[in-house]
Amino acid sequence: MPGNDPLRDYHRKRHFDRTSEPKGRGERQSRETHGEPAFVVQIHDASTMHFDFRLEVDGVLRSWAVPKGPSSDPHEKRLALPTEDHPLEYADFEGVIAAGEYGGGTVIIWDEGTFRNLTEDRHGGEVPMAEALERGHASFVLHGRKLHGGYALTRTGSGSDGGRERWLLVKKSGSSGAAHDAPQPHRARSARTGRTLKRVAEDAAGAAGAG
User: Fold this and answer.
1) Among 10, 14, 140, 200, which is 20 to 30 Å from 118 by CA?
2) What is the pLDDT of residues 123-161, one digit of tens each?
3) Phi, psi of 111 (to 5 degrees)
């Protein structure tokens, strides 16, 4: 991200007097649990329904929009389109982004947990996650409520021709640990509250009416 503020694009796209999304604290409180950084997968019913896959890296959530969501089948390569870095507090966000705002629509937390970096150089040394993503390939193991085992993110298009970067999110072959495939979004339930997208939207509308 250009400049010294990795959240510059995130802040530039949002009006925090109109959206309930977190602005993010300057001190960047780590969400690490038992020494491992956090990940979250949110379902976002915006202009186009998609899953948002986010990894805690260097004090922010590095983020990708995954149209079909993660798969537990190593033969299924899921397109992942990078989006702006999000504040760590976004891992707790579940609610409705107001119509007319950037990304307007309903969001639920479909999965959450921690991950461990598995990316290594040719000598077997660990490559830091930020460096791995800069190079265009990162391997990691997820410890979520629904997603488990090894996954990889690989850049397949640099966007150097003026287009958008393209990545693939893939379950690693031979990776242990059962995992859930991404569900039909409208039937999916939040890992945090058990609510569906419809219920979150209804609760938000009810709260607004009561106010």
Assistant:
1) 10
2) 999 999 999 999 999 999 999 999 999 999 999 987 766
3) -150, 155
